[in-house]
Amino acid sequence: MTNNDHASNQHVGSLPTIPTATPPVDNLENQSSVMGVESSTIVHRCKREDLIKKFSLALRGLALIFSVIALIIMAINKHSGWQDFDKYREYRYVLAIAILSTVYTGGQVMRQAYELCTGKLLLQQRS
User: Which residue ranges run through the membrane (predicted)?
Assistant: First the structure.
């Protein structure tokens, strides 16, 4: 039988039949051990993701602390004469950036802490 004869025997809209093999009965014990390995891998992945989220929150908290320290140092830096930084526009710009940085980082810390505690997203992601 050639390929042309085989193609003419099949119907136009039918799918080719693929023989399916049943799993051997004696291999059922090995399947449970494979499932155990897969489930332990999933558990390890979940624990690792939780650890990454907690570490990320700790780093954001550290960034917030440094941001607040920078803001405080720049805000209380008062001198007289030419060292009076309030006279310089650049200093006011850097101070404004420090304020924005502190507010933004504080918001990120609060958002991530809320998500970590409740498991719910505070702000829905846009798709």
Answer: 57-76, 91-110
pLDDT tens-digit map of 28-71: 444 444 555 677 888 888 888 889 989 999 999 999 999 999 99
Residue type, 50: D
Between 78 and 98, where is the model more confident? 98
Residue 92 CB-half CA count within 13 A: 4
State the Cα torsion 82-83-85-87 to the nearest 10°.
Answer: -10
User: What does the domain layout of the chain look like in residue ranges?
Assistant: 37-127
